[in-house]
Amino acid sequence: MQExxxxxxxxxxxxxxxxxxxxVGDRIRVVNVDKxxxxxxxxxxxxxxDRPFVVIKLDNGYNIGVxxxxxxxxxxxxSFEKAVPAPSKPLVQKSDLPRxxxxxxxxxxxxxxxxxxxxxxxxxxxxxxxxxxxxxxNIAYVEAKEILRIFSEDMAPRLWSKIAEEAYKHMIDGYDGxxxxxxxxxxxxxxxxxxxxxxxxxxxxxxxxxxxxxDRPSTDSAFNLTAxxxxxxxxxxxxxxxxxxxxxxxxxxLAHRGTKxxxxxxxxxxxxxxxxxxxxxxxxxxxxxIKVVNKIIEHRDKSKEPILKNRFDEKVxxxxxxxxIDPEIIEVLIDKGYxxxxxxxTGLGHTPQxxxxxxxxxxxxxxxxxxxxxxxxxxxDMYVYxxxxxxxxxxxxxxxxxxxxxxxxxxxWILGYTxxxxxxxxxxxxxxxxxxxxxxxxxxxxxxPL
Amino acid sequence: MQExxxxxxxxxxxxxxxxxxxxVGDRIRVVNVDKxxxxxxxxxxxxxxDRPFVVIKLDNGYNIGVxxxxxxxxxxxxSFEKAVPAPSKPLVQKSDLPRxxxxxxxxxxxxxxxxxxxxxxxxxxxxxxxxxxxxxxNIAYVEAKEILRIFSEDMAPRLWSKIAEEAYKHMIDGYDGxxxxxxxxxxxxxxxxxxxxxxxxxxxxxxxxxxxxxDRPSTDSAFNLTAxxxxxxxxxxxxxxxxxxxxxxxxxxLAHRGTKxxxxxxxxxxxxxxxxxxxxxxxxxxxxxIKVVNKIIEHRDKSKEPILKNRFDEKVxxxxxxxxIDPEIIEVLIDKGYxxxxxxxTGLGHTPQxxxxxxxxxxxxxxxxxxxxxxxxxxxDMYVYxxxxxxxxxxxxxxxxxxxxxxxxxxxWILGYTxxxxxxxxxxxxxxxxxxxxxxxxxxxxxxPL
Lengths: 450, 450
Prior knowledge:
2 copies of one chain form a homodimer. Chain A is of the alpha/beta class. The first copy, chain A, is 24% helix and 23% strand.
């Protein structure tokens, strides 16, 4: 039978902690022959629970693992309750500042480790937010509301609908900007969804996340949130954007167009980058400045009448093409009643020849098939090679320079309103929310280090 | 009934060309009221066949379309045969140079428009190659052999086996380097396949392609081929590499490790880039120089005994994860008897929670499930968030910093030899051909233009 964890600890460490009834957040002292450490007891990742280390948070904020042997002495020198700081004086907000509401959906950005349970707890209320980052009270009149509490990997089209509805409601209510706190895994998809689902926006919708949680010294939460509030309050554009670190330091953030942004790194702070498009703006949260760097923006205008179109069809697949792909996979999608397929093809927009008859059958059955490229950078051009021309003849809709992820969101959105393939084609080929860049994008290619 | 094309032309243009019995490659004069053009008749893309233009290649090498109206006069002023240049003196090769063989598989790199048929024809023979790019005779004693004639989008695991067998045979035969001419669409996949399929290489295997065909003024064929022959003849490493333009000019090419390279742009000459790894070398074809820039290389050594392990399992899928993905898709793969699934997950290596029970079932049924990230850059770390830990518990193998495409090739290769999941896991987590970079890769991130 598997041993039951004690805050993730097992074996010797668990035994020693239980003996002194230490709870996570308690101040403890760990005495070894050579060294003594003091700090707050932290929970242990269950996967590491068998390793003979106890994790404590030192007063300088860093977590360390201290080796525990039979001779190690662990003492409790302070309890969790005593460590809670006295509540600070409530901050008085300035009512003449732009009104910005943060709708939180979950994710690292709103997570703080709860020392009581060891669990990660979303920080939600306006008070908590202002206590955490008081400087945003100088940027905007701040409110916060929790609308979801999920990891962003659990995001789904029906939740895009809900977020869009909330954002729309608050836009109509007269807010000057909306911040959406979101996990980073799928933030690009949601940014694209909000770009399509609210037409004729009055004010910006700013998605923001964090790559490192707020209990880590390298956290980017406060910097990103400040940049996001600044963008929501003051940016001249009324688009769905992602605002995140622009480089690894704290010099600036970037505001990326929601339909052109992609998470390009698993862990770097500047993971989000624009593809085939310039960022809309460089955001300097410390200086309170926004420098617009893209000539084409949809302008902020509170007299506009936003329109909510937040239906998304869930019977759409994003399918990557690779050598040896079996047509059977597409056959199955046809049989299962899918409505749309976004192919992430090779090069200029190709699939193996042997897939084309099945793709043709899919189109004949009324399924919208859209071509994008796994190269990510550059534009689909299906006229150059015969494979591309055959795919066009089979009825495939070329996805221009759209990101595969954005094409997926867009097709799901279009199919929420029409399944007429002519209409779907027309809409897929129209630039609705900046997802197609007709200008020359070939120079918008990053430079690799040598 | 559909009209039959005349070299792709239809309607008025076809009529006028047939009247003078003009064949593609013939020299023609097109006389309009305002202007006269002379050049060689070119074939027309069938999709444009109805447009009233005739395409000619001017003497400066550019192709133009000249409008044809009822009053346009088209004259034939020279026939194709007369234009053929006198055969040049056969070039005498230097037998003291390294022996390099080019195995061509097809693709733009070996394509020249055949003016007789209008078709694109692979240039294959040693003589044709040397006539086209005489300077490579100063680099190597050159031979050429056609082993396949396909577009690279039609590449498949069983063809990787064939290419590997040919490359192995010629390595054993004592060649000093092997060039594989390949279409660019799936060249990265084949480069990875050859990295795994021949163990203990003696000499380099250099994949090379072209982004622009050799009848276009902007062609990169000759530059890339020269760089590839130079690398095959002289590079100090014995790895499977991709050699292509390093930037848009003709200053240098880059040799990328086959397991770490990816086509990142649909059309730029420098589309191929290393991900999470430095290139192995900068190649200067004009100066005949190779500058190695990666400290870790597998060295060229003709005393080594290469081992051919060229089995690939075709029952493997590369599956991209996206918001709303239906577990049903994985259920189907289980039921269809798939042996391996490479997930292109979100962020550090996640899927939606609702996928986990199905993934667990897949593993229980003996299917190897490997996690990679759609971010491309950075490393999988499934210990940070609970979703990752749950996926690990379900039996998912974390793909480190491997490219999704490389993980797909590697899993297909491993499953060609064993379906024992413990063994598969061990091999997937071992660095076999440079596909895993254990060093810090966080700084190998390109810089986006601002």
